Amino acid sequence: MPTPSPNSVYLKLNATSVMLYANQYVRLPDGRGASIQTYLASFSRKATDIPAPFETALREATRGQPARYQALIARINNEVLRPARIRHQQEEAIRQGKALVAALGHVVQGLTDIPEMPGYLTLTGSAEFQRLLLELQAGTQRVLEARVVNECPSREPVESPEKRLQRLLLTVSSACADIAELMPTARQAFPRGYRFAAETIEQVRQLWFSSSHAIASLSARSQLRRPRNWSAGQD
Question: Mean of the per-residue pLDDT values for the chain?
Answer without folding.
Answer: 82
